[in-house]
Design goal:
490 residues, alpha+beta, Multidrug efflux transporter AcrB transmembrane fold, Alpha-Beta Plaits, Gyrase A, domain 2, 3 domains, four-stranded antiparallel beta sheet, 13 helices
């Protein structure tokens, strides 16, 4: 009796602990339940690599993983689809354009020294670029007005200076093409890169003192720090500039003071300033932290699921789960009487344990994952059905009630174990070989199978034996209709 009370106390403690976990920890919801964005990315071939294989896709995925983690979007998933595509899910993200912008850029960072004898041409191109950027900025600030503030003569002057008189499209398109052409010209005035982002250890951002603009901070490893010192030493005190080039576009050109002529800029740290806003500095920081993509990536599809649809999915899923539990409970009560009631209590504990595990691991819940949970309820009921049916068979043979319960559990044990192991094997195969939603289904089903084994063989047994300690309940009629009981039973 005391041993039975100890098991009952342990079971009660587990229920209280599981309830506390469910109340205090939040559940992670997938894209289909929470709403958010889904991006389909495709790895593009290059001149050197024409055929995309698993090695290239995995290399790209590793970089994208680091970038996604730096974005700060929780519960995101990145998975490989086919031979050259990746699908990124960002739960809760309703503006995928920002993520697409950050993830799609190669982020190849280069530091270059300006070629000798290009001082005047550099100044001319920088002046033209400033004009074009100011004109584009004015245009962006007046997009909702009837007239654009772009000076037609200024635009024509820029086109003529760059020999781009045949440009077509809107004024904004033309200005963007002009800026791109100017940047290409500026980049051509620099020597090949002697230092790249491969030598970066970390990147950050900070607001410039007394200014509204931001700057991006860089920290190099030992080799990168030595190369940066040599590069800055070679141009210190001259009219040559240090160019910082990202994906073939010059984002900053800086003078290196004469004080660095002896040893260059040491310490392995640098700063990029280029009138960055907080958002643009953050995007560059994320790209540099993740590293350069080994292969170009194109965002080929962007899909957004609204939070309203996510709430609707949750409501339908809860209704399906509760309806399933209610129907199972009704079946067990009608066909198995008192043991059916015990099974309902055990199933309630089983559901509570499942949700506690989901919150602790944590498991990202999706529609297929909820389907796996509902299916695991059937597995938990199946174990109880096997046990109770064996108990009925023992009672029909004329065994006493207590002996019938003991024999029922022992005889059903091997069948229950076999069924659960085969299901776990299937779940393991689905989890390791499947992708995305299939993994979610396998995870919740596998967790449910393990917990159902515990509740069927421990919780049900403890509860049933506890109820048998009450004489009023210790009667075969609570397990089997009187008409099916042999006359010798007691």
């Amino acid at each position: 009796m005391f041993r039975q009370q100890g098991w009952l106390a342990l079971l009660l403690a587990l229920v209280i602990a599981a309830l506390s976990v469910c109340i205090n920890l939040n559940f992670q919801l997938g894209l289909d339940l929470q709403g958010g964005s889904q991006l389909t990315l495709e790895v593009q071939p290059t001149d050197d690599i024409q055929e995309i294989g698993s090695e290239q896709v995995e290399a790209v995925k590793a970089v994208l993983d680091r970038r996604v983690n730096s974005l700060g979007v929780s519960e995101s998933t990145l998975q490989t689809i086919g031979t050259s595509q990746l699908i990124l899910e960002l739960p809760g993200e309703q503006e995928p354009s920002k993520a697409a912008r950050v993830l799609g850029k190669t982020a190849l960072l280069e530091f270059r020294a300006q070629k000798s004898g290009t001082k005047e041409l550099m100044r001319t191109l920088q002046g033209l670029r400033l004009q074009a950027r100011n004109a584009l900025k004015n245009n962006s600030e007046t997009t909702n007005q009837a007239k654009s503030s772009i000076n037609k003569e200024q635009l024509q002057s820029l086109k003529s200076a760059l020999n781009l008189s045949d440009l077509k499209g809107t004024e904004k398109d033309q200005l963007e093409e002009i800026i791109k052409t100017i940047n290409n010209g500026i980049v051509s005035l620099f020597e090949p890169a002697t230092l790249t982002g491969k030598d970066l250890v970390s990147a950050g951002r900070r607001q410039e003192q007394n200014l509204a603009s931001w700057e991006v901070t860089l920290t190099f490893n030992q080799l990168g720090g030595d190369r940066f010192a040599e590069l800055t030493k070679s141009i210190a005190g001259t009219d040559r500039l240090l160019g910082i080039v990202l994906d073939g576009e010059s984002i900053s050109e800086a003078n290196v003071g004469e004080q660095f002529k002896v040893a260059g800029i040491t310490g392995g740290a640098a700063t990029i300033s280029g009138n960055f806003s907080s958002d643009s500095a953050r995007e560059l920081e994320v790209q540099l932290r993740g590293g350069a993509l080994p292969m170009p990536v194109e965002v080929i599809q962007v899909k957004t699921i609204g939070p309203t649809l996510g709430v609707e999915n949750i409501q339908r899923s809860l209704f399906a789960a509760l309806s399933g539990l209610a129907l199972v409970a009704l079946f067990m009560l009608v066909f198995y009487r008192l043991p059916g009631f015990v099974a309902v209590v055990a199933l309630s504990a089983y559901s509570l344990f499942n949700f506690a595990i989901y919150a602790l691991i944590p498991v990202t819940l999706t529609l297929p994952g909820i389907a796996g949970f509902i299916l695991s309820i059937g597995m938990a009921v199946d174990a109880n059905v096997l046990i109770f049916q064996r108990i009925k068979d023992e009672l029909r043979r004329g065994n006493t009630l207590i002996r019938s319960i003991e024999n029922g559990f022992s005889q059903a044990f091997s069948s229950i174990i076999d069924g659960h192991i085969t299901t776990l094997i299937s779940c393991t195969a689905l989890f390791y070989l499947g992708t995305g939603f299939v993994k979610g289904f396998a995870a919740t089903l596998g967790i449910g199978v393990v917990i159902s084994l515990f509740t069927a063989l421990s919780c049900t047994r403890v509860l049933l034996k506890f109820l048998m300690s009450y004489k009023s309940l210790r009667t075969p009629a609570n397990f089997l209709p009187i008409s099916q009981l042999p006359t010798s039973s007691s």
